[in-house]
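Work Package 4 report. The design task specified in the project plan requires that, given a folded chain encoded as structure tokens, an amino acid be chosen for each position. We show below one input record used in the internal validation round.
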């Protein structure tokens, strides 16, 4: 049986709003299923989370901009996300999923609609890919020339335990790389592991980006996730010019307590007290990475 996900919580309004043109760089739209069906070979069934609900979440927190990431429940059918981008080109950009069979013409059309990267899946549990419907990073070898032509990046869903062995192949592609959710490892392992240290070096060297997202995915200590804070702070020290933030709404297949995206943003503010650094991560960096106007 395919497990069903809980719906997201009502979003609280942060005490201090984000700066003008701030961007939430990691969220998903799902459905509505009668219009955009979920793939039969999926790992979970999300609640319908259409564009209107996502925009309501952005408005509550105070974000002017957002980046949608293709969720695996829709597999390689990016229609729901592309429809959202077409409706709000002023406000949204996207990261799609595609295999090596897609045509360059399709990728160029997606670029016109606001896609700015492709997401690949190298996240394993017990030796198996944890999410069905993703594309392995080996497919990027075929897609890299057109991605480079379009100025796109490669987004990678990976536990940093497996990052060191993938770095040579990633660097050989010559594309910017964005790592999801601070490396999506278990926070109990701490920041001294070989995998997380390799992420810090990659971010510090500037060829790799990381998303300051997913505190609720690396930690089980809700709602404040104190054991995730050292990962966040270490990445900020490594290179704040290669970081972006995302809330991960509507938090599909969350393990543990359902988070409040507004509270997650308040944790970002608390863990990043310098206002100039906040502005860089929330405004300047995503504008450059996703092609929003200055």
């Amino acid at each position: 049986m395919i497990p069903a996900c809980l719906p997201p919580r009502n979003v609280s309004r942060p005490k201090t709003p984000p700066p003008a043109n701030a961007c939430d760089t990691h969220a998903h739209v799902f459905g509505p299923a009668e219009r955009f069906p979920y793939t039969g070979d999926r790992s979970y069934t999300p609640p319908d989370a259409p564009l209107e609900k996502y925009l309501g979440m952005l408005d509550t927190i105070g974000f002017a901009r957002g980046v949608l990431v293709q969720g695996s429940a829709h597999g390689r059918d990016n229609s729901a996300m592309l429809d959202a981008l077409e409706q709000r080109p002023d406000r949204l950009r996207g990261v799609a999923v595609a295999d090596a069979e897609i045509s360059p013409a399709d990728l160029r059309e997606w670029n016109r609609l606001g896609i700015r990267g492709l997401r690949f899946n190298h996240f394993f549990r017990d030796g198996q890919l944890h999410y069905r419907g993703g594309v392995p990073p080996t497919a990027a070898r075929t897609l890299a020339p057109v991605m480079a032509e379009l100025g796109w990046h490669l987004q990678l869903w990976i536990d940093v335990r497996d990052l060191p062995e993938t770095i040579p192949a990633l660097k050989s592609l010559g594309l910017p790389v964005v790592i999801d959710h601070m490396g999506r490892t278990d926070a109990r392992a701490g920041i001294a592991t070989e995998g997380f240290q390799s992420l810090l070096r990659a971010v510090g060297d500037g060829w790799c980006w990381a998303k300051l997202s997913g505190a609720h995915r690396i930690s089980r200590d809700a709602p404040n996730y104190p054991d995730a804070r050292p990962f966040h702070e270490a990445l900020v020290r490594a290179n704040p010019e290669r970081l972006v933030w995302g809330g991960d709404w509507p938090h599909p297949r969350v393990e543990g307590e359902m988070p409040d995206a507004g509270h997650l943003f308040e944790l970002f503010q608390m863990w990043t007290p310098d206002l100039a650094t906040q502005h860089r991560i929330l405004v300047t960096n995503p504008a450059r990475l996703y092609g929003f106007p200055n």
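The mean pLDDT is 93. Validation will be extended to a larger panel in the next phase.
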